[in-house]
Amino acid sequence: MIRPRTEQIVTIERFILEHQPQEAKGDFTNLLYDVALAAKAIAHKTNRAGLLDVLGRAGGVNVQGEDQQKLDVYADTIIYRLCDHTGRLCCMASEEQEELVEIPPEYAKGNYVLVYDPLDGSSNIDVNVSIGTIFAIFRCVDWEKRGRLQDVLQPGRNMVAAGYVLYGASTMLVYTTGAGVHGFTLDPELGEFLLTNDNMRVPEPPRYYSVNHSYFGRWSPGVQQYVRWLGGRDGNDAPLMSQRYIGSLVADFHRNLLRGGVFVYPAETNKPQGKLRLLYEAAPLAFLIEEAGGYASDGYRSIRDIEPLDLHQRVPVFIGNRQLVEKAEEFLAQEARVQAEMSENEALTEEVLSEEAL
Ligand code: AHG
Ligand code: MN
Ligand code: MN
User: Fold this and answer.
1) pTM for the full model?
2) Residues 112 and 152 in one domain
3) What is the average pLDDT across 6-14?
């Protein structure tokens, strides 16, 4: 009897090796190992957060102007120190580092780029709510002058891998290389990530919608109508869903990937590009959700098609079941039409008034 993959004991190392692209020379495979090792190290610290005095603020403020928690700094440092000398990368970019993270001159440069949010949801560290790490891998663009900003500022469509680690009731690593989405759970005794979710697909019908309702007053009318639609107001045709939002993007995304749903962090009056960062939060998750049969949009187009102009560029995010995300695009397209008509009418009115004034 052939057992299903998830009943066999398949370590992430074996799975990566078995699924590596034919042309891979080992660098790409080893880079994924490096990320898995970093995840184990961060998980080890996270599971002891309350005991090893890694709780609380590191005292610094990151490029986002947000208080750095000690675990943010630890996670950022561990990823850098595990990856800077391997000769697999030409540069990196981290949410916690303002500038491009260069490979020290004493080490060889490789042909890949690693971008990452070392610790996502860090405001939840002190209250013991699940947090995560988000990462993505590009090939460098300019093989001669490797390790420049041009190598990092690539659209999500160019990613060769993307994934996240969820430090929750168990530690899970979920990734894609463009051949489906696969989930591994860390066995703390073995210290190994074992395959537990082979070929993950976002299920229908969706069960949850995730949004921070307290910002309702900051959204445009189109977004407000969409969120009301999600809530099934006025007996509309929205699927019956629960609202669930825990303020950790990775945890909210993971639940919606497993149960179906949509996560929404829209533009706001004081944040026209929203809060989430394109390069190392939205685009990696957009790759994953598309590979799982879903979709991710900024409200107008696929997040994977957006060319970043800045390392820490923010982007409005609608991500999850395709029909829920496309519904958001419908509401925002309708809003744009109404706004266009209104400004046309205003222009006409001004024209009439100025003619009358002559
Ligand atoms: P990070 O901790 O990396 O800055 O990310 C926090 C993000 C994301 O995880 C979460 O969905 C969002 O911030 C929550 O934002 P609000 O508190 O504004 O809802
Ligand atoms: Mn984050
Ligand atoms: Mn972060």
Assistant:
1) 0.93
2) yes
3) 85
276 CA → ligand 2 middle, Å: 7
Neighbouring-strand partners of residue 36? none
Is 353 part of any domain? Answer: no
Q: Last residue of some domain: 136, 164, 197? A: 197
Q: Which of 197, 223, 251 is the last residue of a domain?
A: 197
Measured CA to CA, the distance from residue 162 to residue 112 in angstroms comes to 13
Hey, whose CA ends up nearest to atom 6 of ligand 1? Answer: 121
Q: Locate 353 and state its tokens.
A: 């008034």
For ligand 1, what atom is nearest to the CA of residue 120? 3
Give dist(CA 116, CA 121) in Å, integer. Answer: 13
* CB-based contacts of 215, cutoff 8 Å, min separation 6: 268
Q: What is the pLDDT of residues 196-241, one digit of tens each?
A: 999 999 999 999 999 999 999 999 999 999 999 999 976 789 999 9
Q: Give bridge partners of residue 61 from the DSSP assignment.
A: 67
Longest dimension (CA), the chain: 91
Number of domains making up the chain: 2
On whether residue 92 sits in a domain, the answer given is yes
| Mean pLDDT of all residues belonging to the chain | 92
Q: Which ligand is nearest to the CA of 125?
A: 1
The preferred substitution site among 264, 275, 280 for testing ligand 1, maximizing ligand atoms within 8 Å of CB, is 275
Query: Does residue 189 share a domain with residue 58?
Result: yes
Is pLDDT above 80 for 23? no
Ligand 2: centre distance to CA 249 (Å):
7
**Co-location of 278 and 212 in the same domain:** yes
Cα–Cα distance between 167 and 132 in angstroms, integer?
6
